[in-house]
Write a structure and sequence with these properties.
The complex is a heterodimer.
Chain A: E1 7-11, H1 27-35, H2 74-82, E2 89-92, H3 104-123, E3 129-134, H4 140-150, E4 156-161, H5 175-184, E5 188-191, H6 209-229, H7 232-235, E6 241-244, H8 251-265, H9 276-283, E7 284-287, H10 300-307, E8 312-313, H11 336-351
Parallel strand pairs in A: 1-2, 2-3, 3-4, 4-5, 5-6, 6-7, 7-8
Chain B: E1 3-8, E2 17-22, E3 25-32, E4 35-40, E5 54-63, E6 66-77, E7 84-86, E8 103-104, E9 106-109, E10 112-116
Antiparallel strand pairs in B: 1-10, 2-3, 3-4, 4-8, 5-6, 6-7, 9-10
């Protein structure tokens, strides 16, 4: 990427332990953390539902020499990612489990603590970094309060949701989040994440991580359909949505299918202002990692063209085990104009980074 | 072919490894049970530092319900995407003919471990 800029739209900073958040929690919730601790909807109090491919789902070489979790040491992240690849801006998505708490108010307090911790330890320490606002999205009124509060810091460029929600994200109950995001001028990002209450696939709980990982693409399709048909994009004309780590090969098929069905069934959704594919092309952006790797690598280029030159934004997913190297992720030659848009231009426009 | 001394005998313990720089190339030297092997430290998939990956074995099965864990310490897993390589040949486990990493002969000359590049 020498000569052209590079923006990484999905990097994970990690809270190494709950203790790191204590300075940002009110006494009432510090006590709660001490007495009750984290109670999520996951059956696993520690760790995640699947062992994944590697410890903490991370690159084996991403454990900082200083100790702590991958993604918890800014200096090491600088050396291994930001400096190594000449990244101009990176968007941090902290996957700390604040939004998954059963206690709504505790989840909101944790989310606020995560955001304050991000400001102090990340955003104010490296001008290349931006971050998503962690919100308790299953309590949309509390999430809206946190968006209003956190968005005051210019380093926050997005609101973070997960695709495994209690109900499809287009439902009215979630609209206060979109209202607040529009008020703050921020897009809403939906990032693949661990166990929120629903099963990980549309057909219940699978046995293997390989099923879980693949099922995410289907979860994203369900969320996109919900946002379109519940009228979220029409109701909030300023709203932009970013899909992160859900794959993208499914996009042309979904657009074709939704448009074809809309021709025949549009009486059911008479309020929709555009054909479904319009929203996908104009209101939704998608990050590239995990990169599709077709059997014949060259088959990727027509796929990128079909999705649209404005839609895809490059991401590495550092420090996770399925990290994409900015110089090697496309295993085929991508035409220069398209490459430039994916690596830089689209993200710059989406997040309004200064030139 | 050039010969490069990369370590003293005894410096790399059995099961251990040393990553060296030779003419701008990063190369991993592994001490197996019966000698040394050397591989290019770059995964052919996305260029990860392959030789920093975990060494494990392979599970094989001659028949349903019967399995064996064999070749302990001879299967190298890439630290990023977990692609597996035979540390003795550099060939990948899933697609040995098409996906392979360069391997180099290693000899021991008295007290020195020598890689031939």
């Amino acid at each position: 990427m020498r000569g052209t800029g590079l923006i990484d739209c999905d990097v994970h900073n990690a809270v190494s332990s709950d203790a790191a958040l204590l300075p940002y929690l009110p006494a009432r919730w510090r006590r709660h953390l001490d007495l009750v601790g984290s109670r999520t909807f996951s059956p696993f109090t520690k760790g995640y539902a699947y062992p994944k491919a590697a410890r903490f789902a991370s690159r084996r070489d991403a454990w900082p020499p200083s100790g702590g979790l991958p993604g918890s040491d800014l200096d090491f992240m600088r050396a291994q990612l930001l400096d190594a690849y000449g990244i101009e801006h990176a968007v941090l998505n902290c996957l700390y489990r604040a939004p998954e708490q059963r206690n709504d108010a505790f989840g909101a307090a944790l989310a606020a603590a995560v955001n304050d911790w991000q400001v102090e330890h990340w955003l104010e320490r490296d001008s290349r970094l931006r971050a998503s606002v962690t919100v308790p999205f299953e309590s949309p009124d509390l999430a809206a309060v946190e968006i209003d509060r956190a968005a005051a810091h210019h380093g926050f460029v997005q609101v973070l949701l997960y695709p495994r929600s209690m109900a499809p994200l287009g439902k009215r109950r979630y609209w206060p989040i979109y209202e607040a995001a529009c008020r703050a001028g921020l897009p809403v990002g939906i990032h693949a994440a661990s166990t929120t209450p629903g099963p990980t696939t549309a057909s219940g709980w699978p046995s293997y991580y390989i099923e879980d990982h693949t099922g995410l693409a289907v979860a994203f399709q369900a969320q996109v359909s919900s946002l379109i048909f519940e009228g979220v994009f029409d109701r909030f004309p300023a709203l932009r949505v970013v899909l992160m780590e859900g794959g993208f090969a499914w996009v042309p098929a979904l657009m074709a299918r939704l448009d074809a069905l809309h021709h025949r069934l549009r009486d059911e959704v008479p309020d929709l202002e555009h054909p479904p594919s319009h929203y996908l092309r104009h209101r939704i952006r998608i990050t590239t990692q995990p990169m599709e790797e077709p059997e014949r690598p060259g088959d990727l280029v027509p796929l990128l063209r079909e999705i649209g030159q404005d839609v895809l934004m490059f991401s590495t997913d550092y420090p996770h085990w399925d990290f994409d190297d900015p110089q090697r992720a496309f295993r085929t030659r991508v035409p220069a104009d398209l490459h430039q848009r994916i690596m830089y231009d689209n993200a710059r426009a989406q997040y309004r980074f200064a030139a | 072919m050039r010969t490069v001394v990369v370590a003293a005998v005894g410096e790399i313990p059995p099961g251990g490894r040393k990553i060296v720089e030779i003419e701008g190339r990063s190369i991993g030297v592994f001490h197996l049970a019966d000698g040394y092997v050397a591989l290019r430290n770059a995964c052919p998939h996305e260029g990860a530092p392959l030789c920093r990956g975990a060494l494990s074995g392979a599970v094989t099965s001659p028949a349903p319900g019967r399995y064996r864990y064999e070749r302990r310490g001879e299967i190298l897993r890439c630290p990023w995407h977990q692609w597996e390589f035979d540390v003795r040949t550099g060939r990948s486990w899933v697609d040995p003919d098409r996906v392979r990493v360069r391997s180099y002969p290693v000899t021991v000359d008295g007290t020195q471990v020598i890689v031939h590049v």
